[in-house]
Design goal:
single chain; about 240 residues; alpha/beta; Spore Coat Polysaccharide Biosynthesis Protein SpsA, Chain A; seven-stranded mixed beta sheet; 7 strands; about 15% strand; binds guanosine-5'-diphosphate; binds magnesium ion
């Protein structure tokens, strides 16, 4: 069996993180779960530990990108074969994490993203978020040369190549979208599989409506830079 690390980023998710850890462990046998507690001020760390996770408590808030990179560094340094990213807020069911991981392990892809929009599995986000996702997905599809329907999905799995890449560098602003751009630039093979996600149980998304426009613009810049650097890349032959 390939050794898999589940990376759960969590900021003040004491109400959900324990269930998330238990759910992932139940659906992915043998999986090690690391919760990257990014400066939480609640009981996120003890709840995660009680559910069987390893917990890395960062000394201060690094944000989603820094927290993800922390997880990938553990995966790289400890020689894991695969890593699956799962949110600590309970939106990603363990069964769906297992599905995404399964698709990765079947091959031949280097990165598999769980998409809410393939097969019309329902859309739980706000209208602004939907627009951000739509813009991001269209631009990314154009640049990556393959259809991407859910560029902001945080439910994704990578193999050793992705672990090495993301341990070296993980974007820090529009993390999930830019991480896809990074993967494409590195020549990684990307695929999506349909997943069902749950609505957020508490708190609110970190993506606010006003961000949607900025989000689209940032992705456009990232996509353009990808197109340019790709063309400029020297032919290894
Ligand atoms: N490590 C870390 N996790 C965060 C931070 N902000 C949010 N998260 C976690 O990242 C996951 C996704 O965040 P969320 O706001 O739900 O984003 P959305 O689902 O894409 O709208 C959740 O598990 C949050 O607890 C942060 O600054 N650092
Ligand atoms: Mg969420």
């Amino acid at each position: 069996m390939p050794r898999t690390l589940a990376i759960v980023r969590a900021l003040n998710e004491e109400r959900t993180v324990g269930d998330v850890v238990a759910d992932v462990r139940a659906h992915i046998p043998g999986c090690v779960v690391v919760v990257v507690d990014d400066g939480s001020t609640d009981a996120t760390a003890p709840r995660a530990r009680a559910a069987g996770a390893r917990v890395v408590s960062l000394p201060f808030n690094l944000g989603m990108g820094g927290a993800a990179q922390t997880g990938y560094r553990i995966a790289r340094d400890e020689g894991f074969d695969a890593a699956v990213q799962v949110d600590g807020d309970g939106q990603h069911p363990g069964s769906e994490a297992a599905r995404v991981l399964g698709a990765l392990l079947e091959g031949p892809h280097d990165l598999v993203v769980g998409s809410r929009f393939l097969e019309g599995r329902g859309d739980l986000s706000t209208p602004a978020r939907r627009w951000g996702i739509r813009i991001a997905s269209h631009l990314l599809s154009a640049v990556m040369g393959r259809r991407v329907t859910d560029a902001t999905s945080g439910l994704r799995a990578v193999g050793r190549r992705g672990i090495a890449l993301y341990a070296r560098s993980y974007p820090c602003d529009y993390v999930e979208v830019e991480a896809l751009i990074l993967a494409a630039r590195d020549g990684m093979r990307v695929a999506e599989v349909p997943v069902t996600m749950r609505a957020r149980e508490q708190g609110r998304s970190t993506i606010r409506p006003a961000h949607a426009l900025v989000y689209g613009a940032r992705v456009a810049v990232g996509a353009a830079s990808l197109a340019v650097t790709r063309r400029a890349a020297p032919d290894p032959g």
